[in-house]
Amino acid sequence: MQRVLLISMPSAGIYRPLLGISLLKAELAQRGIAADIRYLNLLWARHCFDVIAKGVSTRAELRTSVSPRMLDLLFQQSQNYPMADEWIFARALYGTGGTSDGQYIADVLRPEYDAEEVATILALREFAPRFLDDCMREIPWTDYTMVGFTSTFTQHVSSLALAKRVKEDFPHLRIVFGGANCEGPMGTALLRHFPFIDFVVSGEGDDSFPELLHRLESRQPFDGIAGLIWRKNGEPTLHSEPAYVRTMDALPTPDYTDFFAQYHQQPYSHLCEVRVPLEQSRGCWWGMRSHCTFCGLNGQTMGFRAKSPDRAEQEFLEIKERYAASFVDFTDNILHLGYFETLLPRLAELDHGVELFYEIKSNIKKQQVELLRKAGVRRLQPGIESLSSNILRLMGKGCTRLQNIQCLKWCLQYGILPEWNLLYGFPHEDPSDYADMLPVLQAITHLRPPRAVTRIRMDRFSPNFNEAASRGFHNVRPQRPYFYLHPLDQNALQDLAYFFEYDYADGRDPESYVDSVRAFVDVWKSQERAGTLVYAGLDDGEAIIDDSRFNSAKPHFELSRLQTRIYTFCDQAKSTAQIVEALAPTECATVRSLLGAFVANRLMVQDGDRFLSLAPTPTLGKTAAEFDLTASVIPIVTRYPAELVPSAV
Ligand code: B12
Ligand code: SF4
Fold it and tell me: How far apart are CA 22 and CA 37, in angstroms?
């Protein structure tokens, strides 16, 4: 009888079960194969709490006594650089003959962490071999016929280190790897350089993994299993066709029971909120049309597929009930537009009390933002990326500066927290675009600031990586930390790596022209109270605007009827021609002069010929009498309440 063990090694967010392996467990159960999931990253976190946060018993204490970078390490939510959580396990994998410690510390760690933090990282590394001993002791390995490691984010080196130990002690046990770190050439490189791995499942494993188990059981050859990489005559062989689930409704409901059982045993479980992942679609409908140049999100399968609204609703309710979920994060790369007509109105009716997260495309309508809020969405990732239409065009994003800003404004208005980054460093971008962006940023300080101003990352599978030379990059090489993680040559690392560094063919240095934007965003983010921009319509058709932003031009504005009409009309971005037409017979020159004054006072922003009001205003199409703030289901929000702003903890 086959019995499978699926393992999640550090680092993988300790406050969420993993969707991929939980789907695989459920899929195997349907085919009569028993599988267990071990979240060994939770075990590792126990030790990290001892080293990083000993004696801390409340979230408030954690926030005040542990630095944000150490919190990331503790909660296993590190970004892709500097991969300290990977390096912590490198010696356990390669021994002391691996890569040079001193150089990694000087070259990669020290620029990111202070001396005390580096000491903590070293202490964690000292413990890594003992943690692996614990893992070896904890698990009844002989109960299993196959051990699967899931590797996404910074789980790679720890997974390799444990897999090596398992194979040494239990050579008969088959070892398989899957997850985002294993797709395509990365998977082939795994088999080439790590002889203790038997199989890699590249891409979606929902069909290929059970099929692999079936072939093993029935002793059939492995040819034809989409996405499977195995050794054929000693050479890693990848079946060319990427694995691809066509019917999303055919997927089982993920089985998260192992996570919850193991999580609630942890002494730190009261310190985090569990966020439950769920998926409703895969691929990207926008990327099928125009693949955003920096995006590697979809690996080798861009084709968009979504669950039916019935299935999506039933699965959401099942997960909510079964795990008493308070937070559900949808893992979709992009929300299915059809759900605005189907699923979302149903979720809004349910009044389910769960806080939802989605990734969306930012050129969304106001009514759609309102519907998202009613459906329970409290956090969004709208893929803003830039506030320059020229740069957005260069990256193929399919939206404009004003669409992005109106999305941020409506999110504020309906109490939804948008997460976004300001990306720079696109080849062919014009430095003057950043000079143009500065006054725009200065005008929107009542809105949610970007989380970071960050140079574009080069990810495998992105157009920037696949077509680097024709897109203006050269000298593409694995990101620096990889050279210290694995004692392999650059060619091998080139196949193993997911994140890359690059130079620009035209020799540009984007740092030289983004400074003022970065400096302003830092000032904006450092404000304890960013202030508000509050619009209030008066009975006589006039309005007032109170501006308490830290950089306001004037604290109070009184708007005439004409100004009020223009201001509310531009709740959604409008061209001068549209505004003039709507205000006929008012003179064009008058309209232009009023628009100019709004922009000068940072009450509006402009993009070429189009204008957008910045203060949240009542929904257009409703008369003053129809619009009653107090009766509105969702009051206009002009400042995010503290509880909505997530912290690391
Ligand atoms: C949802 C998501 C998040 C969520 C939640 C992540 C989570 N842990 O659940 C949030 C928003 C928190 C997040 C954050 C980040 N993310 Co993210 N995220 C995704 C996203 C969009 C979906 C992941 C997902 O759940 N997919 C659906 C499930 C079903 O797929 P899956 O996990 O891959 O599993 C399938 C297969 O891989 C395979 N499989 C998996 N494990 C195993 C094991 C075995 C044994 C087998 C046989 C098969 C197998 O079968 C599974 C079923 O088909 C992916 C992109 C994508 N489309 O996958 C990026 C992605 C995973 N994220 C990525 C990155 C880089 C990040 C960040 C660093 C953000 C950033 N700066 O870009 C942070 C880091 C977070 C952290 N350290 O905790 C990269 C990871 C690259 C890598 N090599 O690992 C990806 C691939 C996208 C990208 N290119 O940017 N992310
Ligand atoms: S960035 Fe988002 S919208 Fe663009 S292709 Fe990737 S998933 Fe699609």
Answer: 8
The ligand whose atoms approach the alpha carbon of 421 most closely is 1
Residues 164 and 169: their CA atoms lie apart, in Å, by: 9
Token readout for 393 is: 């065009």
Structure tokens at 229: 């990489």
Which ligand is nearest to the Cα of residue 26, counting in written order? 1
| Closest of 130, 88, 129, 128 to residue 109, by C-alpha | 88
The predicted structure's pLDDT at residue 230: 97
Nearest CA to ligand 1 atom 2: 331
Which two structure tokens, joined as six digits, stand for 79?
A: 């970004």
Protein residue with its CA nearest to atom 10 in ligand 1: 331
Supply the pLDDT for residue 251.
98
Compute, in angstroms, the gap from residue 394 CA to the centroid of ligand 2: 14
How many Cβ atoms from other residues are within 10 Å of residue 541's Cβ? Answer: 13
The finding on whether 493 has its CB within 6 A of some atom of ligand 1 is no
Q: Using CA atoms, how far apart are residues 384 and 291, in angstroms rounded to an integer?
A: 15
- Residue 333 near ligand 1, beta carbon < 6 Å: yes
Q: Tell me, what amino acid is at 532?
A: T
- Side chain identity at 207, as an amino acid letter? D
Nearest Cα to Cα of residue 298 among 311, 285, 316: 285
DSSP 3-state assignment of 11? Answer: coil
10-residue mean pLDDT profile of the chain (649 residues): values are 96 97 98 97 97 91 91 93 96 82 92 95 96 98 98 98 98 98 97 98 97 97 95 88 93 98 95 95 98 94 97 98 97 98 95 96 96 96 98 98 98 96 98 98 97 97 98 98 95 98 98 98 91 92 95 94 96 96 93 97 98 88 41 63 59
- What domains lie within the chain, and their CATH numbers? 3-248 (no CATH), 275-526 (3.80.30.20), 533-618 (1.10.10.10)
**Residue whose entry in the numeric block shows the structure tokens 């320059």:** 388
- CA dist., res. 41 & res. 213, Å (int): 26
